[in-house]
Amino acid sequence: MKIGILLFGTKTKVSKESLYSSQLVKKAILARGHAARIYYSNDFQYTFYNSRPGLLYRSKRFIPPDVLIVSANILSNIDLHLALVKQMELMGVRLYNSSVAIARAKNKLRTIQVMAHANIAVPKTLVVTDMNYLDAAIKELGSFPMIIKLAQGSFGSGVSIIESPRSLRSILDLVGPPSENQRNHVLIQEYVREAKGKDLRVFVVDGKVIAAMQRKARRGEFRANVAIGGSATAIEITPEETIMAIESSRILGLSVAGVDLIRTATGPKILEVNANPGLRGITGATKLDIAGHIVEYAERLFDMTKQI
Ligand SMILES: Nc1ncnc2c1ncn2[C@@H]1O[C@H](COP(=O)(O)OP(=O)(O)O)[C@@H](O)[C@H]1O
Ligand SMILES: [Mg+2]
Description:
The chain has 9 helices and 16 strands. The chain has helices at about 15-30, 80-90, 100-105, 110-115, 135-140, 165-175, 240-250, 280-285, 290-305; strands at about 1-5, 35-40, 45-50, 50-55, 60, 65-70, 95, 125, 145-155, 155-160, 185-190, 200-205, 210-215, 230-235, 255-265, 265-275. It has a 5-stranded antiparallel sheet, with helices on both faces. A 4-stranded parallel sheet has the order 2-1-6-7, with helices on both faces. Strands 8-11-9-10 form a 4-stranded antiparallel sheet. β9 and β10 (about 155-160) form a beta hairpin. α1 (about 15-30) packs across α9 and α3 (about 100-105) packs across α4 (about 110-115). The chain is globular.
């Protein structure tokens, strides 16, 4: 088989973390006897000849691989970037994750809407669009500290802890009133104190949990992200957590997902679901062949659909 990996950006501009993960996947592709190729989004041009959606890659007609693994290493201009994935879908390219699943996962407000609709527990959250309602929102949510997050953020950046009404107001001033901040919604969320700086990262591929780790924030930090110094260890998760992780990936439409769960006094809750979970932390903590699982799904997808 020919299996491709799509990275967003140019060869020289992709982050070290994304390059590392895609190299692991490439090795897993080759180890299974397939051909591997990495594509960079900036080298594509879209064509509409005879009204048909098509693509050029490095100025030549794009001949799709048998399966394309989309590494959604997109941090901004998500709609713009996802138009490429959409174009490929319109051309009938076998790929995952899909553009709509990535769009849902990349926006924490949208994720939480989908979760709430499916009755999956999330921390108590409020989204304000006008500062006149800020005081009411603070009262509604209850006690400080609170968490404030940008709808589009990753690696812990865009997530802050607010100790008092005074600091909440000043940070919202810094971000800009949400209704005028076209780039981002602002989520105000209850702080799960009892988690003590820990959360779970559950890796789901094709509807199965293939690995899980607990992450612990470093001293003086509440965010457990490995990218900002959190430490990771393999962990057994409960059946309830397993079901939550699988269900949230399924309803978002993600074939590969990194589900962030937090253990609270009232049971596990979903923090967010990542469409492009990094492989370094989870591979290091669990010693499992995560990239291998991702590639095996490409093989299954090909087998399931090649006759059609
Ligand atoms: N409501 C919360 N209560 C306690 N800690 C939280 C809460 N929300 C996020 N965190 C911590 O901050 C980290 C980053 O938040 P997350 O929502 O996963 O955003 P990001 O996309 O930046 O990873 C989490 O891994 C968790 O450790
Ligand atoms: Mg996270």
